Amino acid sequence: MPSRRRGASTMKDSKRSSSVFRSLFSYTRPHLWTFLLVFCCTLLAIAADLAQPYLVKIAIDDNIRIGKNDYHSLLMICIVYLAMSIGSFVFTYLQNNLLQFAGQSIIARIRKDLFTHISKLSMSFFDRMPSGSLITNVSSDTETLNQFFSQVLLSVVRDGLTLISIIVIMFQLDVRLTLYCLILLPIIALIAISFRSYMRKTYQNSRTALSRLIAFAAENLAGMSLIQSFHQEKEQQNRFTDRNQVYFRANLREIRTNVFFNRSFDMLSSLSVAFVAWLGGIAVFDKAIEFGVLYAFITYIRQFFQPISTITQQWNTLQSTIVSVNRIWNLFSVQPEVEDAEEPRNVELSRMRGKVDFNRIQFGYAEGSTVLHDLDLHIEPGEMIGIVGTTGAGKSSLISMLCRFYDVRKGSVTIDGIDIRELPQQRLHRLVGLVQQEPYLYSGSIVDNVRMFDETISREQVIRACKFVGADALIGRMKDGYDTQLSERGSGLSAGEKQLISFARIIVFQPKILILDEATANLDSYTEQLIQRALHVVSENRTTLVIAHRLSTVMQADRIIVMSGGRIVEQGTHSQLLEQQGYYEQLYRHSRGLVELGAG
Ligand SMILES: Nc1ncnc2c1ncn2[C@@H]1O[C@H](COP(=O)(O)OP(=O)(O)OP(=O)(O)O)[C@@H](O)[C@H]1O
Known about the structure:
The chain is α/β, with parallel strands linked by helices. 65% of the residues lie in helices and 10% in strands.
């Protein structure tokens, strides 16, 4: 029964939308007084606006036409008219500013909460969610919400009230003429409704074309080095031009539709003025109404179309607000898969020794697939473990278990006998330090990058750490030394330089357990020596796990773990493993170019 199903899903959608909007309004609660003030300002601004034609009507009918030559009253009316204009200006100014203040404060709060929420989510979430889409959530979706407060809400209140007030005043001026004018209402509604859906389509088309264009540009900028090295500039320019053209055309169509809609309303407005002038003119000839009434009527009928046109146009913004709010609340409703225990164990970090045990763990990223099989590994405090294995063997997955980026499916990971699920994650991450293959540097100074923006760590501590790992000389050569500002992702620094800075981070944060993921891959031999020395320094008195493709990196390790297909297949020192003449020995010989892996 498709129709019944559609009905049910529509009900579900509308229930969801209403609950989403309820959550949105919970953000508005602290600003209720501001909104009340905005409402009062709006009322006063509308009153001041609408009083003006009425004042002219009084001037015409009660002063000018009768020929009383009552200069005093006329002057008073002019002064009140002027006061109304100033009042309208002041109240509209206040209304706009207050509303913008409340709207921007709400959006800033939502943006902050959203960022905080996202940063607490588990790695499995980031595996599923492309970062481009998250950027859209944090930036443009919240901006659309802002439009809701600054445009839609304002329009509904201001234009809705204006419309009602105009109708009331028109009825008060002349019932018959008002009723004639209201005949136009169905025509207006028909035009508004038919334009509304067309405008929505053109709006959506142009938004889609724009986001495709942005996504394409972002992807290309990120991969520019690859494009240039493959001489693909021309091809990419052509592809960009195609997308640019699509957006250009979609945008023009949207603008054309808007202009056509606005002009149609203007025409309708002129038509109704002609209509009122004709009917009202006859009524004035017949002395059924006064001339001033006709003047006020014509002015009001002109003002009548403006709010309808604005409200109709806000419909699009309201639609995109609903989409954005839904997207934002979808994100808010995602719960982290890895969570702190209800009553986490509070351990003294300085007392931890760094004994690590993987107790028969099993893990897989997706249901039905297993990446780590019943893996058992016990590491003594201060021991240096090298982890080797071919691509996809499960090395990084094993490390992710210790960092608790994911939770094990079976078994447990313990540090000094404590299950890491019982530790607060914040403590765990102070206990376990990770240096990735491509260390991530943020835009900011070197000092801030080393202390990860933690102001409790002093500049002196940072400098000491950099000296300790041998990064001091390199930083000294930079333009502003430790205050050198790094750009996004630390571009401008070599891989080795980034690596040294990330080692300094480790020294500053003093984790008891250190993980190095391919830290010395892709380095020239001089930098590698530098890094090896730094590695030696930082791993002292720390339990260290080093993942390496190049066996030379881990030959000095206390123990080498050889992984294959998510299992530990061999372990021992370099010489013990060579003696065994097993898988490690094959890897070793392969790495020295003696045999092909798997041959024989
Ligand atoms: N985020 C993920 N989502 C789904 N599957 C993943 C994810 N990360 C890794 N895998 C899969 O898990 C298996 C083990 O991958 P893992 O990255 O742990 O291997 P690795 O030994 O570290 O490999 P490499 O040396 O290439 O980094 C692979 O089959 C891989 O495709």
